[in-house]
């Protein structure tokens, strides 16, 4: 009897927890070279001055994809440019990253495709990579892409816990 009650409780907890997720997590895939980006993009530039400006990233959201990237940050930290050609959007994204506070930590950048549930490219992220001797890793950010209703993708942008601890202990 107790075993049956425990099993029913466990199933209830599992179903309830699954329902609280509130969306589908989307994946990214690092690419070496995006090639020639055709079409137009909504360019989303994010820079946060706190923590030496390490939370800096650019997104290229493909126009007409049916998806909308919405970084979960204060709007005054964002700059959005609409209807930018692929080539220009990528150039502007790279220029933006190179010009931000924190750029002295940056040694390179990484471009990743943002993939739909079906595995199709719906946009790109361009993130700086840091000198790994400074933080122990070159990629200091964690990003999650959560697909909500109507094609809205909530983007959470954070620093790795170990990087946050190091920055907080440095003063």
Question: Can you walk me through this structure?
Answer:
With 171 residues, the protein is an alpha+beta fold. It has one domain (22-169). Helix content is 26%, strand content 42%. It has four helices and ten strands. Strands 2-7-8-4-3-6 form a six-stranded antiparallel sheet. A four-stranded mixed sheet has the order 1-9-10-5. The longest helix is centred in the first third of the chain and has 18 residues, at 2-19. The radius of gyration is 19 Å and the shape is globular. The relative contact order is 0.21. Residues 2-20 have low confidence and may be disordered.
Quick gist of this model?
By secondary structure, this protein is an alpha+beta fold.
Brief descriptors of the model:
171 residues, alpha+beta, six-stranded antiparallel β-sheet, four-stranded mixed β-sheet, 4 helices, 10 strands, globular
Give the tally of β-strands. 10
Portion in beta strands: 35-45%
Order of helices and strands: HEEEEEEHEEHEEH
Oligomer: single chain
Count of alpha and pi helical runs: 4
How much is the average pLDDT? 87
Class of secondary structure makeup: alpha+beta
Rg (CA only): 19 Å
The end-to-end span amounts to 57 Å
Instruction: Give the strand order of the largest sheet, numbering strands 1, 2, ... along the chain.
Output: 2-7-8-4-3-6
**Low-pLDDT sequence parts:** 2-20
Roughly how much helix do the residues carry, as a percent range?
A: 25-40%
What's the overall geometry?
globular
What can be said about the biggest beta sheet? 6 strands, antiparallel
Q: How many domains in all?
A: 1
């Amino acid at each position: 009897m107790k075993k049956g009650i425990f099993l029913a409780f466990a199933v209830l907890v599992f179903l309830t927890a699954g329902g609280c997720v509130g969306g589908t997590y989307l994946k990214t895939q690092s690419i070496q070279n995006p090639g020639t980006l055709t079409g137009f993009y909504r360019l989303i530039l994010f820079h946060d001055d706190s923590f030496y400006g390490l939370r800096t990233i650019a997104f290229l959201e493909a126009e007409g994809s049916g998806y909308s990237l919405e970084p979960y940050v204060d709007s005054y930290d964002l700059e959005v440019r609409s209807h930018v050609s692929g080539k220009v959007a990528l150039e502007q994204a790279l220029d933006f990253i190179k010009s931000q506070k924190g750029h002295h930590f940056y040694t390179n950048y990484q471009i990743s495709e943002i993939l739909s549930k079906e595995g199709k490219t719906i946009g790109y992220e361009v993130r700086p990579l840091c000198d790994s001797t400074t933080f122990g890793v070159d990629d200091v950010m964690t990003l999650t892409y959560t697909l909500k209703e109507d094609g809205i993708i909530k983007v959470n942008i954070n620093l790795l816990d170990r990087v946050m601890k190091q920055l907080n202990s440095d003063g």
